[in-house]
Amino acid sequence: MNVLKLADVGHAFLGRTVLDTIQLTVEAGELVALVGPSGCGKSTLAHIAAGLIEHRHGHVVRGYRRHAVIFQEPRLMPWATASDNIGLGLVRHHLKGSIRRQKVRAVAERVSLDLHDLEKFPSQLSGGMRQRTAIARALVAEPDFMFFDEPFTALDVALKRRMQDIVIDTVAACGLSGLFITHDLSEAVRIAHRIVVLDRHGRGIVASRTVPFAPGARDDRMVFDTAQGFLTEDRAFAHLNDCDERSLA
Ligand SMILES: Nc1ncnc2c1ncn2[C@@H]1O[C@H](COP(=O)(O)OP(=O)(O)O)[C@@H](O)[C@H]1O
Ligand SMILES: [Mg+2]
Predict the structure, then answer these.
(1) Which of 34, 151, 162, 191 has the fewest CB atoms nearer than 10 Å to its CB?
(2) pLDDT by residue (tens digit) across 2-40?
């Protein structure tokens, strides 16, 4: 069953085409990684899929109940503690204080934030802790679909891995579906069920590849070999390491 379907979606900013003829589906329980070089339209596509931008052409069909979006920067309120930031995810739920606190603690535990961290303000937390807080804030409202827009790009390698593991575990434990945007193919191979590749200029999805084994059951060697295999043997991935944004104008 599709929980997200983009049919012939296109968009333009100030008359310049950014996305064209995008066909994309996400099945229930599936985490799809969307990869493509910088500037090819990944964020625009995610924002359209999440309804944050109105698209110019095509159709978006959402079959999920509730979604959450995780951005590259955590977007926390600087004046609120981690706990209160997470609780902001529940403001529209009108819950009793004790139930609210219970839910905040449960999601904090899921992303490995301890009680001590919960009382800190964003400026007192490390980059990784801030991103955990943002994920907890997204999870507290119990979404069944998650959009991730390069959430771990700014983190160092060890921390990135830890955060990827949290995503892998959470998707499996909570039965979530999602779209995970990244320009890092190893990250895509590590966490996703399937990888879709956006054309260099956002003119269509040029490939869809199922990654062998379940996320979480892939070891480092397998991730490395699979990513290398895509890059060296699969022409659809050839443009992934292009990074000259000037050529996009
Ligand atoms: N609000 C905007 N107004 C005008 N151009 C934009 C806007 N947002 C993005 N773009 C342009 O659209 C293209 C795709 O951007 P984006 O979706 O952010 O790419 P990616 O996430 O793949 O790096 C880029 O050329 C970018 O400069
Ligand atoms: Mg982007």
Answers:
(1) 162
(2) 999 999 999 999 999 999 999 999 999 999 999 998 899
- Ligand 1 near 245 CB (within 6 A): no
Cα distances (Å, whole numbers) of residue 212 to 30, 81, 157: 14, 41, 23
236 phi and psi angles, rounded to 5 deg: -65, -20
**Domain range for residue 124?**
76-143
pLDDT digits (tens, 9 = 90+) for 189-225: 999 999 999 999 999 999 999 999 999 999 999 999 9
SS3 label, residue 130? helix
Which atom of ligand 1 approaches the CA of 249 most closely?
25
In a domain, 71, yes or no: no
C-alpha to C-alpha distance for 33 and 191, rounded to whole angstroms: 8
Instruction: Output the CA 184–ligand 2 centroid distance in Å.
Output: 12
Same-domain pairing of 88 and 119: yes
Atom of ligand 1 nearest to the CA of 37: 22
Domain's final residue, options 143, 168, 190: 143
**Identity (one letter) of the amino acid at 93?**
H
* Over residues 110-117, mean pLDDT: 90
The residue whose CA has the least distance to atom 3 of ligand 1 is: 13
Q: Provide the CATH number for the domain around residue 6.
A: 3.40.50.300
Residue whose CA is at the smallest distance from ligand 1 atom 4: 13
CA-nearest residue, atom 1 of ligand 1:
13
Q: Give the three-state DSSP class for 128.
A: helix
Ligand nearest to the CA of 36: 1
Residue 184 in tokens: 């890092």
Please choose from 44, 196, 199, 248 the residue to mutate so as to test ligand 1's pocket, defined by most ligand atoms within 8 A of CB: 44
